[in-house]
Amino acid sequence: MGSIQPSPDSHYDYIVCGGGTAGCVVAGRLAEDPNVKVLVIEAGQHNKDLENVHMAGGWSNNFDKETDWNIITPPMPGVDNRQVKLSRGRFLGGCSGCNGTLCIRGSKQDYDDWGLDGWSGEEFFKYMRKAETFHTKPWFKADEKSHGYNGPLHIEPHDLAPISELIMDSFVDKGLPLDHDMFSTGETPHGCGHAPRTVYKGIRTTGADFITKDYARPNITIKTDTTVDKIVLDRDGAGGLKATGVVVVNADGAPETLYAKKEIVISSGAYCSPAVLLRSGIGPKDELEKLGIPCQVDLPGVGKNLMDHAIVFMFYETEKEGLTNDHHVYHGDNLAKTYQQWKENKTGFLSTFPFGAFAFARLDDRLADSPLWVNAPREPGRDPMGLTPKQPNIEFFTTECYGGPKQYNRFPVDNKHVFSMIAELFAPKSRGSVTLKSKDPLENPIVDCNYLADEMDLLVLTEACRFGNEIVMEGAGTKDIVKGSWPPESNHHTFKTREDWIPYVKEHATTCYHASGTCAMGKADNANAVLDERLRVRGVAGLRVADCSVMPTLHGGHTQMPAYGIGEKAADLIKEDAREA
């Protein structure tokens, strides 16, 4: 009996495994050459009919259902053995369709610290700019040279609610000077400003826009509801391994193999990209053998080095009406009116994400009385977290109403008004891991973030909460408007010392959804590097990874713009190598 020949439509030039933020960018840019065929494989559904993607205020309705990967950590000792829900977008566009819409690029020094050719801060900021078309507003003092004006990603500043204007006054009063566009320039480590958003004319713009809408192309095939199992690895003439195909599970449960003539790019995110490699036999040999997976390439770093920014919400109640936006969603039947406003005009509360004011801060002076900080080892010119004075230790951001991850369900009904201050830890020293539970591609990997395992992480995040509370309770804009903590019994508004804050931080620290590092790039002498600086998987030809899993260290910012930048950079690297082949 002869072998079954694959049908012609199972062959492509490039296959992109994952239609999330970075994967869509890679596919869209590669398809600019009309002579190549590109396939995008996405586990979830197409986003075109997902209203809660296009309506930024509907973000949380994408979670805890089929549009979410629904990953939950094991109990983690550093946060009182709590488990944390790690929601991820499981649809075309991925997390760019359910994230906070924030464009906070980090510091140029963050990328200089990678020490990899082609990835300096100056070079990488250019790639982030390439993705965007920036639209300013009359009140916004844009740094025009820090923005792009020709990309598929439409970005604009956010009009602040009154509570955010007051918090901004408090930031300035407490020593964080106003610099409008500091989150685009990468040059201000201590100050407050406005975070541009991936929203334009009341509609969220996502990675999917690189391959749909105005950028739909006949040479791109989008295969949704299809889960990537593993990469097909063949021996080339010289005995080396080459990636030639992808085994997938279709919506009906049937397996299928799809073939790539040129390259395969894994863009499945910091949780699923290492899982695809592991199922393919690429990873730590002992781990693979325990699961009965033959080891093709022994790469100990696959699934290791998981980094995320831990954050803590601090909620406050105010009795002053008209400051927060709670009344649009929690009071009476206003949500129906708010929804109708978006449906008819693409305006109002649901047309944007309810984050408000933002700030970066250095904590050197505030931690000068801590023996742990003062006596900690450090490199010349850097603090104990490994940061230079050019890089912030923490970020503050605020909500213009009550809300957050699903554990925050004490909604302020009965005409109450609540806002939050959020403290975010940069440069975490703790590292987590991604491992397989089984060989089954339909079973989620085990993701252990290992939050606050390092005592220095706990120190810095605790001090961040203490400082954030002082800004709210003592700052000129907000000191006279706070009734108390929310929920009232938490009483965190009364905390004064670092010791006061430690139990609260351990109880409330959660994810900022900035997973990274699990397929890290590195130099040839780095045994734990999974990729070289051109994003190529070590020991395998024709296989790259392009998403935030490639980051050797996590920048001080949010991961959306780096994900776009990585996608842009990856496409250029692939095109360069194709020209030289």
Report the strand count. Answer: 25
- CATH homologous superfamily designation of the largest domain: FAD/NAD(P)-binding domain
From the 3D structure, determine the CATH topology of the largest domain.
Answer: FAD/NAD(P)-binding domain
Percentage of residues assigned to helices: 10-25%
CATH class of the largest domain: Alpha Beta
Question: What would you call the structural class?
Answer: alpha/beta
- Count of individual helical segments: 13
Q: Let me know the largest β-sheet.
A: 8 strands, mixed
Q: What is the overall shape?
A: globular
**Unreliable spans:** 1-6
> What Rg is obtained from the alpha carbons, in whole angstroms?
23 Å
* CATH architect. name of the largest domain: 3-Layer(bba) Sandwich
How far do the termini sit from each other? 37 Å
Q: How is this fold's topology laid out?
A:
Elements: E1 11-17, H1 21-30, E2 38-41, H2 51-54, E3 71-72, E4 85-86, H3 108-112, H4 121-131, E5 132-134, E6 153-155, H5 162-173, H6 182-185, E7 191-193, E8 199-200, E9 203-204, E10 220-223, E11 227-235, E12 241-249, E13 255-266, H7 269-279, E14 282-283, H8 285-290, E15 297-298, E16 310-318, H9 334-345, E17 355-361, H10 371-375, E18 394-399, E19 417-425, E20 433-435, E21 446-448, H11 455-474, E22 482-486, H12 498-508, E23 510-511, E24 540-541, E25 543-545, H13 560-580
Parallel strand pairs: 1-2, 1-13, 2-10, 5-6, 12-24, 13-25, 14-15
Antiparallel strand pairs: 3-4, 7-17, 8-9, 11-12, 12-13, 16-19, 16-22, 16-23, 17-18, 18-19, 20-21
